[in-house]
Amino acid sequence: MVSLKTRQPMLVSKAMSHIFHGTSMRVAVSACIVFIALSVAWVVVASLGRAVSLRDIFGHFQAGKCVVISLRSLLGIHFLRAAFLLAALVGIMTAALAAGTLNSRSQPAPGSAVVAFGAVTFIVWITWAFLNWILSLAPIFVAGQGSDTFAAIAAAAKMCSTRLGPVTAVSTWFGLAHIVAWFAASSIIAFPLGFASLLPFGIVLGGILLVTLLYFAVADWLYIGRLVGYVAILEMPAEETGLLQAIPSAPLVSSMPSGRIDPDELILSDVPV
Asked: Tell me: the pLDDT tens digits for 172-198?
């Protein structure tokens, strides 16, 4: 406690190392329990929220049609998202441990350790981001086509390959909007933090919480907008096909005898003024 109260980085780091040296196993077990509990809660809540939002979205595109969504399939998709996130975290921790072996006391190589850790972390992050994107796209096939978990994932991957341009455009524009919202929220939060020494702690904390809640609301709004864009891409071929089928086939001019004009056909000069 004396080392922690000094606020000196070296003494604080030694104190933290001493604390975790005796309770590292408890910390690891507690972290696993908390992560599992939060993951289960997120899977359930995210599945319920996605079912409600997709029902309203498809109800807008398919007016008058009853939208039936399999909650079991949505639970499976969000369970896979949580599992892939856990796998990515384990991969990053493994990369950190492997990089530590490259920088031993007998053969110090901090540069090689940093490069190895950065390369493995980048590969893990890219892989997780791609899989998470596919899984975030899969629920629209559960709602639109009644697919199960793995069929929806396969349909999402197929859509990314056949409709790569529109899907990339929707993801890029909404992703840029999300980045702008994140930078704006971070900049606004800097103001109450700058007056932390002058204002009461409650006011500073309240301002940070308010900005954070507004950012979450904007982020969720952008996410729903991205889902609407994906559903529009999915429904576009069906609408075009329905429009073409609704137009009656007109008689072709080539079916008439050559050199003759239909006497019953109205032309502009025959219409009375």
From this structure: 999 899 999 999 988 888 877 777 777
Two tokens, residue 153: 């994932």
Q: Report residue 94 CA to chain centroid gap.
A: 25
Amino acid identity of residue 90, one-letter, is V
How many beta carbons lie within 10 A of that of residue 257, not counting itself? 6
Say how far apart CA 130 and CA 172 lie, in whole Å.
14
What is the rounded distance in angstroms from the CA atom of residue 251 to the CA atom of residue 102?
Answer: 78
How far is 164 from 70, CA to CA, in rounded Å? 27
The helix/strand/coil state of 70 is: coil
pLDDT in tens, 11-62: 777 777 777 666 667 777 888 889 889 999 999 999 999 888 888 888 887 7
Domain ranges of the chain: 1-162, 163-240
Which one, of 66, 23, 231, 50, lies nearest residue 141 by Cα? 231
Question: Could you please report the per-residue DSSP string of 144-178?
Answer: HH---HHHHHHHHHHHHHHSHHHHHHHHHHHHHHH
